[in-house]
Structures are given as C-alpha cells and as structure tokens.
From TrEMBL:
The lineage of its organism: Eukaryota, Metazoa, Ecdysozoa, Arthropoda, Hexapoda. It comes from Odontognophos dumetata. Keywords: Ribonucleoprotein, Ribosomal protein. The gene is RpS5. It holds the Pfam family Ribosomal_S7. GO terms for cellular component: ribonucleoprotein complex; ribosome. Belongs to the universal ribosomal protein uS7 family. This is Ribosomal protein S5. Residues 3-70 form the Small ribosomal subunit protein uS7 domain. One of its GO terms (biological process) is translation.
Amino acid sequence: GRAGTVRRLAVDVSPLRRVNQAIWLLCTGAREAAFRNIKTIAECVADELINAAKGSSNSYAIKKKDELER
C-alpha cells in the first residue's frame, strides 16, 4: 500500500481557470505584502506584477505556482 500518500497528477485545466488562478495569486501576494506595511496596496500590486513578469522568485504568484507544479 501507499500508506495514505497523496500523489498529485497533472491534468488539463481550462484557460479561464488558469487566468483566474493567476489573478487570484497576484492579488493574494499583493494583499499579503501590503498587510502591516508602510507601502500602499498600489505599490504592492505594482511590485507583484513586475516580479511576476520577470519570473522572479520574489513574486508570491511565481512561488505558489512552482510549489503547486512540484
């Protein structure tokens, strides 16, 4: 037996779901960055978008995507 290990399988996902998930991750990252911080939410959204566009691991969205795909 597998002793209850969960194996994640790659499945096809609709394009709309991919877009929705990307936007949700960007917003969540910006919200977490702005929480208890001097930076405005606008600055945090801008930073998150720039980091995600670069593919930087500083981006919450990129980190979560890599974590899910692992």
